[in-house]
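I wish you would study the pair of lines that follows with an eye to the fold:

===
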Amino acid sequence: MQSKNVNFFLANLFFAAIVLFYIFMLWQGELEQGFILTAFFTLSVFAFTLWHAFSKFGIRNAIIFLILVLFVSLGAEFIGANLANNFEGYYQYSDFLGWKFLNIPLLIIFMWTAIIYLSYQVSEHITNFRFTKQTHFLQKFWVSFWCALLTSLIVVAWDFALEPLAIGMGWWSWLRPGEYFGVPISNFLGWMAISFSVVFLYKIFFERERPEEANLFDYAPAIGYALICFFTILTAINIDKPLFALIAFVGMFPFVCIMVIKFLVSRLNFPEQYRK
């Protein structure tokens, strides 16, 4: 019962953080308030990510997954923010996001960990394949490959919507502007490679057999992704950026539709599990 209460509290904190953050973006309040709410949003989503990973994967596998995300994404961020001044795609973070480690805001580290994990959970619901002791290596390889590829596409769709809005809010700037609203295409290819690598390595080497799940808490990351999609579109429209709204709709909304269909099918097949 206590675990269910914690699940309920963190899931609702996660949803509330998303709604409050995007309401502020629609309202466009003071910059200082913006940092506080951005920090609350990021830390709430990260806390939910940790708890959901521990609940779903177990402590050992959750730590392995999070270390993979932190190691790979932090390495990429360090290169982009410190060592890539002679290459395409060098960028700088503003002071808006607060304290930095190696010129990288701590909030960015938490944010990318959450983005990759939540995107991975969305892809899990779409592919809906769980390893068992009878799963042979070749089957495991291809399931891991397609799930990792789908995760990377979800991450990039998210980033395509996030990048222009984040630059507009002054979170970071590209010193060598690129093709996509000032963002180099290499940025998206890089995050696609990072998210693919993390998920593929985790699934093929570390994921073990897990019990079948179809409860509402398991779907919380997917619900959060749908909320972010909706409010990103609404925010872009509100700031007179209809093209950004269209990009978010085309990139993110199809995954939301697929998840809704999968959820309805799962609920029809396992109605008793959603009463838990």
The beta strands are 91-93, 100-101, 104-105, 172-174.
